[in-house]
Every structure is written in structure tokens, then in C-alpha cells.
Design goal:
The chain has 174 residues and is mainly alpha-helical. It has one domain: Four Helix Bundle (Hemerythrin (Met), subunit A). Helix content is 81%, strand content 0%. It contains 6 helices and no strands. Helix 2 runs antiparallel to helix 5, helix 3 runs parallel beside helix 5 and helix 4 packs parallel to helix 6. It comes from Desulfofervidus auxilii. Pfam families: CDP-OH_P_transf. InterPro entries: CDP-alcohol_PTase-I, CDP-OH_P_trans, CDP-OH_PTrfase_TM_dom, CDP_ALCOHOL_P_TRANSF_CS, Phosphatidylglycerol_P_synth. Keywords: Lipid biosynthesis, Lipid metabolism, Membrane, Phospholipid biosynthesis, Phospholipid metabolism, Transferase, Transmembrane, Transmembrane helix.
Length: 174
């Protein structure tokens, strides 16, 4: 197995640690684990391209790892009322929408490549920053802009990238 894929698996394995740390109210540990997982998201793709080890498994596994990390984080933070539940619903709905679109293309034997758009990558980045901002805010570690600023950015980019993926899927089907 390639190093980039191992790093992606590490991100997946960090999610239960993140969840347990959060449930045990070890918010500092949860923040560190989330930050490490977020960094692995940047490292695995860069490394795969750099050492020319891009694989089909990695192309599929990376977005799944992102969805597991971000969805669980948004649900946890919404459940404990650290961020609005509507934001978690928007983020998770977009991901379900994308997965269902991919499933439809697969079921209709329409060839497609699992590859995030630039807007999709930036949306993931904004979502990661929002989760980090909330985790930092919980601990009152740093002064931040109001969290509503991060919520607004996440909302706008999540909806925009969802619409972009819908358009891409529509063009594939047409």
C-alpha cells in the first residue's frame, strides 16, 4: 500500500479518537486530533502527486475520509450546540447529495471520475477552518472573529460547491 493511502487511512482511524476525546470532554485533545487529521488531508494528496503514487483507491478513499471526519465533527458540535444544527444539516445534505449523484451515475453506467473541483477543495478547507474555529472558541484559546462569520462562509461555499457538483452531474447525464 502506498504512503498517501496509509496517511488517508490514518485520518479515518483518527475519527474515533476525536469522537471519544470530545465525549470525554477532552476538548484540547479533540482539537489536536482534528488538526492532525486536517493536516493529513493536505499531506496525502500532495505526497501522492509528488511521488507519483496517485491511485484509484486513494481517489475514492480521500473524499470518504473527509466526509467521515467533517460529518462526525459537524454532528458532534451541533449535538452539543456549539454550532447551529442547520449548518450541520447543510454540510451533511450536500455530502449525501454528492454521494447519491455518484451512485446514480454508477447505476446508469455513466463513466465519471472521482475528482474534487477547486471549489469543492476550498469548501473542505473552509469547513475545516470552521470546525477549528469552534473548537478554539470552546476553549477560549484565541480571540476570533464572531463564529457567525465562519458559519456564513461555510454555508455559502457548501451550497455553491453542491450546486457546482449538481451541474457537473447534470452535464454528464445529458
Amino acid at each position: 500500500m502506498s504512503w498517501p493511502n496509509l496517511i488517508t487511512f490514518l485520518r479515518i482511524f483518527l475519527v474515533p479518537i476525536l469522537i471519544i476525546a470530545f465525549f470525554q470532554k477532552y476538548i484540547c485533545l479533540a482539537t489536536i486530533v482534528f488538526l492532525i487529521a486536517a493536516i493529513t488531508d493536505a499531506i496525502d494528496g500532495f505526497l501522492a502527486r509528488r511521488i507519483k503514487q496517485t491511485t484509484t483507491l486513494g481517489a475514492c478513499l480521500d473524499p470518504i475520509a473527509d466526509k467521515i471526519l467533517l460529518s462526525s465533527s459537524f454532528v458532534l458540535l451541533a449535538w452539543y450546540k456549539y454550532l447551529p444544527s442547520w449548518l450541520a444539516v447543510v454540510v451533511i445534505s450536500r455530502d449525501i447529495f454528492i454521494l447519491l449523484g455518484g451512485l446514480l451515475l454508477f447505476l446508469f453506467n455513466i463513466p465519471f471520475e472521482v475528482r474534487p473541483s477547486i471549489l469543492g477543495k476550498f469548501t473542505t478547507f473552509i469547513q475545516i477552518i470552521t470546525i477549528l474555529a469552534v473548537l478554539i472558541h470552546i476553549q477560549k484559546l484565541l480571540p476570533l472573529p464572531p463564529l457567525s462569520f465562519f458559519y456564513f462562509l461555510t454555508l455559502i461555499f457548501t451550497i455553491s460547491s453542491g450546486l457546482q457538483y449538481a451541474y457537473i452531474g447534470y452535464k454528464k447525464i445529458s
